[in-house]
Design a protein that fits this description.
Number of strands: 0
Radius of gyration: 18 Å
Number of helices: 7
Mean pLDDT: 75
Strand content: under 5%
Structural class: mainly alpha
Helix content: 55-70%
Shape: elongated
C-alpha cells in the first residue's frame, strides 16, 4: 500500500503537468507569450515561405511533424515544453490540438519513470521529513545530494 506522502506527491506531479499544458494553451490565446529569446539545444529552424516546399504542403503540418518527431525522441521535458510554447503559435487550431496530444502522450510515456525515482525508500523518507510543500527554495536544504539533485532536476523540468 502506498503511503500518504507518495500519493500526495504523485497527485502534485500530475497537477503540475496538467497546469503546464493548460497554461501553454492559454498563453497562445491571449498572446502574452512571445517567442523564446534564447533557443534551446533541441530547437531547429522553423520552415519559412522561402524554403523549398512541395506544392500544397502546409507549413503548419511541417511544424506539427517536427514537434511530434521531437516528442517521440523523448528529450528532457523542459526542452520539449519550450519547443511547444514556441511552435504552437505557428499552427492552426487543429494542428495545435495534435501538438497538445503529442505533449500529453510524452508525459504519459515519461512520467512513470520520474515517479519511479521518487518511490525509492530513501527518497520517500527524506521527502516525508521535509516541510511541505517542497518548494524550489526548500529543495536546496535537502541534506542528501542525490535526492536534492532529483528534486531540483524535477523543478527544472529535466526528466533525463
Amino acid at each position: 500500500m502506498m503511503n500518504k506522502s507518495a500519493k500526495r506527491f504523485k497527485w502534485g506531479v500530475a497537477i503540475v503537468a496538467l497546469t503546464l499544458v493548460l497554461t501553454a494553451c492559454g498563453a497562445k490565446n491571449n498572446g502574452s507569450e512571445g517567442p523564446s529569446a534564447s533557443p534551446t539545444s533541441s530547437s531547429t529552424p522553423l520552415p519559412t515561405a522561402s524554403d523549398s516546399e512541395e506544392p500544397g504542403e502546409d507549413p503548419g503540418e511541417l511544424i506539427l511533424k517536427q514537434f511530434q518527431d521531437s516528442a517521440m525522441a523523448s528529450p528532457p521535458a523542459n526542452e520539449l515544453f519550450a519547443s511547444f510554447k514556441e511552435l504552437i503559435a505557428e499552427v492552426e487550431p487543429a494542428q495545435a490540438d495534435d501538438m497538445v496530444r503529442s505533449l500529453e502522450a510524452y508525459y504519459v510515456k515519461n512520467l512513470p519513470g520520474v515517479e519511479k525515482e521518487y518511490e525509492a525508500e530513501k527518497v520517500q523518507q527524506l521527502l516525508s521529513k521535509s516541510e511541505w510543500p517542497i518548494t524550489e527554495e526548500k529543495a536546496e536544504s535537502i541534506g542528501d545530494a542525490a535526492v536534492r539533485d532529483l528534486v531540483q532536476r524535477t523543478y527544472a523540468g529535466d526528466t533525463s
